Amino acid sequence: MDVFIxxxxxxxxxxxxxxxxxxxxxxxxxxxxxAISRPASAAAEPDPKGVRSAEDRVAYLESWGLQVSPEAVLxxxxxxxxxxGTEYEQxxxxxxxxxxxxxxxxxxxxxxxxxxxxxxxxxxxxxxxxLLCKNTVVGGELMGTDFLCGLGGT
Length: 154
Fold this sequence. Notes:
Layout: H1 12-37, H2 40-43, H3 54-62, E1 74-79, H4 89-97, E2 109-116, E3 127-133, E4 136-143, E5 148-149
Antiparallel strand pairs: 1-2, 2-3, 3-4, 4-5
């Protein structure tokens, strides 16, 4: 029976450098795997600009992970209030959490497009509303019989 003994002299600085390189490479791999496994809708919010047609509106909602009816079930022109009172605080906070600042549109006219959501996990009747000023989405939400949440909410 042959026995081999291998010995090596390792300097502490070189060992520390190798360990640091392994830790950095592991961290970079973990970050890369997280970005790859994340759905596109979570990676970046959809671009609210340039939403001109029915197809653009549906594509915008799809980028939030929603499957909706191909045509709006309701289109309304709304006049935004000149000043948002305290009764709007929760709604403005909801819009703000999605990156929308409705205070910029005080006193302006917007269109609200309502779509039937076909894939909401709660089931039942759920609608998606998009508020547009010209060709820009300025707000939106999902509404069910017993809830109101952001476009990415469930």
